[in-house]
Amino acid sequence: MNINYSPYFLLASLAFGLFSQTSLGAACPASSDNIGNVTSCIVDGSASDIKLNFISGFDSSTTTTPQGGNNGTTIGEQRRLAFIKAAEILAEQIVSTQMIEVDAQFSALECSSNSAILGSAGATNSFAYQEGIDVIPATAIKDTFYPVALANALSNSDLLPDASDIQANFNSNLGMFNCLSGGGWYYGFDDNTKRSTGFLTVLLHEVTHGLGFTSLTDPVTGKKPADMDDIFSNFLYIKSEAKTWTELSTSNSDNIKRKNSAVSGSNLFWNGQNANDLAIGKLTSGFSDNDSSFDFTSGDRIQMYAPNPLEPGSSVSHFDISASPNELMEPNLALNACDIGLALGVLEDIGWAVTLPDNNDFYLNIHCQQIKNGETYINGFDGDSIKITPVSDTDSYTYSLTYESVDASDLIQETDNGLIINTKSNGEFAGTYELTVSNSSDPDITITINRPLRLIWSSHALLNNEKYTLRIEGGGANKVYDLTQSETGTINFLNLKNESTTFISAINSPSEYNPALLNITSNTVTSPLTVETTVSSQDNTYDDVSSTVTVYPSILHSFTVTDTSNSAISNANIVIGNSSLIEEVGIDRSLTTNSTGTQSLYLPDTSNIFSVKISKTNYISQIITVDSSNTSHKITLVSNQPSENVTQTTPKFGSGGGGSLPVWFIALSGLFLIRRSRPLRH
Predict the structure, then answer these.
(1) In the chain, N or C terminus with fewer CB closer than 10 Å?
(2) 623 neighbors 177 (Cβ within 8 angstroms)
(3) CB-based contact 679:115 (threshold 8 Å)
């Protein structure tokens, strides 16, 4: 086996580290547990073993609250557990006797204030079997490139024993200024992402590329790698030609046909039987409807992404964005993925042995957790909506819902991606729900869902010397609650009369979910201190609900904004850059200066460095960094208005008098260097 192909990863190996960190690794804990600062571990699945090497970005000790089934208490821990969760999903579906090894890291990928490359991944190498030189596996095609993990599986041997199989890289700056500043990564396993980006979904998407869901053929020129086929491109089908890419020669005219199909919009499809069989009865759009039935039936093909103009890194190597229901392997972020969907059929088409879902086993997925008949699901997401996906051999099903034995079916919203149980618009929502789902061929599934009370902190974590509130919602009117905490004396809970008490009564205010409101003050602390709070109903109507809050030492920062003549600038905007700690603390990130051009706020007194943007209309914005070593900040903004006595002589872009290439064009050109990393954009 003396032909390999790795033009991208030869370039990237200096940054990623081509070689494996260790030859052995300890077993990973379950994703539902917690994990210390390990550098490598192995997920032991029923279909394969996946080794995870945590290269960089996993040692963050920034504390955070467990979320969505991810029980990590630091950013580093949550990142590792999310990787383990993804590996658990794949290790039950992708079959291999050879360990699949993944190198993972976080780094500063391309991004701006309204777009970002979330992550990129690919195989470290690709192999082609040559007749007369190699022992060609029975299911392999000669002179065709395979990603190394798949080549290992087909050969039943580790072809590169000292190297990893997949390298994955994720954006470490997400949520900061000029990098989708509205929200960062969400490491939970549920749908409660809000403004953040679900990391588990992005991770599954990228690792699936590394398993082989990617074309090595150059879509810009239509040329095959080293004038040879690659296994993924073998299944790309040009409808107008009635031929696959591999059925076309390497002549210039056939290269042009491949090139044109990559920008054809709706002329490129997937020709693999396994993926197309999986799509039967599932896809409602995004396919070639050969029998004009408006349903995906036998003989139809899944449409591939082929926009015009070409999108390097996205075109060809994804399903089309018109796919409905949404598929994980679309080029833009697909939400709420519990598995890799139709991509499992694509992987089977290119040669992987896979374990397909048992369509005869009727069950429900709730936030990626399998729930079967008679089981009880404890909803840990407070009053937020619950997504339920019935899994069966038919998409035809009926359902009913009761809340405390009263019909509540009107809370169910049916979507292409499953059922959504919404929260009542007011009043009491905590307690016991019973859901029954039926299809045409299986026994009914009836499950119990316990929804807890909802605890809302006015800040997710507290800064000392400040006053906050804890709001308990969703109980009945005039309910009485007990409150306990793991650290006594650190945080003081007071009723509305500012009296110390261990219980309060809910206000009879149905329009506001019968809230019970506590005032909270914290004593002065010198280092971060985590306190767990548990709320119980005295009559045991509801399950106990716990919440963790961290008290941080705080320090006052003052800002003074002036112009170049030292005159105060009022109403200047001061925005604290988003970060995991700022997001956790939940302080107001946006402030404005007063009439004297000043403003102040408390920030955590830690070793963290915070980014602050100062702006005002008609002035050039500034971005500064602040930390606890300097708490007084004077910022001078320079006017961007031309002086009345100055004539602008520099030609504008497009004026016919010169100028330079726009920044967006330069940035886009750079993407050609990472074509085979298949970046996922937001």
Answers:
(1) N
(2) yes
(3) no
